[in-house]
Amino acid sequence: MWYAETPVFTMQDDLFGAPPAAPSPHVLAQAASEPIVRRRRTNEVCPAPADAALQALAATIPPRVRIGSSSWSYPGWAGLVWDEGPYSESLLSKEGLHAYSQHPLLRVVGVDRSFYRPLTQDQYARYAAQVPDDFRFVVKAPSHVTDALVRGEDGRGLQPNPAFLDPVLATQDFVAPALAGLGHKVGALVFQLSPLPRHLLHNLPLVLQRMRTLLLAQPPLSPTAPDGVLALEVRDPEWLDPLFMPELAAMLREAGATWCLCLHAKMPRLADQLPLLRKLWPGPMVCRWNLNPLHGAYGYEDAQREYSPYDRIHDVDQDTRELLVRTMAGIAGAGQNVYVTISNKAEGCAPLSVRALAEGLAANPRP
After folding, report:
1. How would DSSP label each residue in 163-187?
2. Minimum mean pLDDT range among 36-50, 55-69, 241-255, 295-309
3. What are the chain's domains?
C-alpha cells in the first residue's frame, strides 16, 4: 500500500514513476469474461476433448466388456485419443497412457513391450497409477520364456532356448512382478508361444505337458486380481487340430487358464477357434485382434507401411466384427469377463475399430 506521507515511497515514486492507476471497470469485466487457458507442461499428454456421443455409447456397453488397443504410442491418434498436440511417439509411450485411459471406450490396453524385455514391479506400478480403478491390462510374457528358440536381430532362430517354458522364470520375470505392480488391474497374463520349430510341432503333447507344468506352478491370481486370468496364445494352427483340441482344453481347465483367441493371418479365423472356447465354458474371453488376413501370414510390415499413421480405417473386416460382437455379448451376458485388444494392423486404426465393436454391441444388446 502506498502512503504519500512516507518519504521512502515518495523517493520510489520519483525513481520509478507513480503507482499504476487502478484498471477501469470495463477492463475488469472484459478480463473476467475471458476463459482461463491452462498452460500445458512440456511432458503432458492431454486427452481429446470430451465427446458426448462417445460418452453415451460407452454407457451402453456391458460392464464386463473391456475393449482397447494393443498399445498407446501413436501420434496419428491425434483428435481421436489425444488432443491435436502434436506429440512424439516417445512422449506418448512414456506419458500417453493416462490420456488413453480417459477415452470413454478404452477400458483395457495391451502391454506388448514386456515380450521383448521383462518389466519390473515398479514399471507395472507406474502403469497402474495412470489409469482408473476399473481399467485392466492384457500383458504378454517375455519371449525368453515363450520362444523355443534364441533368435538373432533378424528374427531367425539361432539355437534352442534352454529357458523355454521354465516355470521359475515365468513366475520371477512375469507373473509375480505383474501381479505386484498392477494389482487388481490385471486382466489377462498371456503366454504367447512363438512359432515352434518343426521337431516340437511334431511333438505337441510334450510341449503341452511343459505348458501344464508352467501354468500350475504360477501363484493364484484371484487373491490379488479377482478379474485376472492366465491365457495361452499360439502362432501354429496345429494346436487347433480337432484330434488334439480335447487334450489342450483339458490342460487349460486343469490349470484354471484360458485360450487367447489370436486373430492373426497365421491362425485359423475366429469361427474356427471358438470350438475350443466352448470346451472351456464357462469362462472369460481373451482376444487379441492382431492382423488383417488380407496381408497374409507374414504381412505385418506390409500392414504397417500401408496403414501408418493409423488415423483411419483402411480395410474393414466385417466378418470378424460381427462374430466378435455376438461372442462378446453372449459371454458377458452370462456373467463372464471379456478382454479384447486390437492392433492398428487389424483394420488401420485401433480406436476406430474399438468404436465399431462398441456400436455393434449397442445395436445388438443381449441380456
Report:
1. TTT-HHHHIIIIIHHHHHHHGGGEE
2. 36-50
3. 45-363 (3.20.20.410)
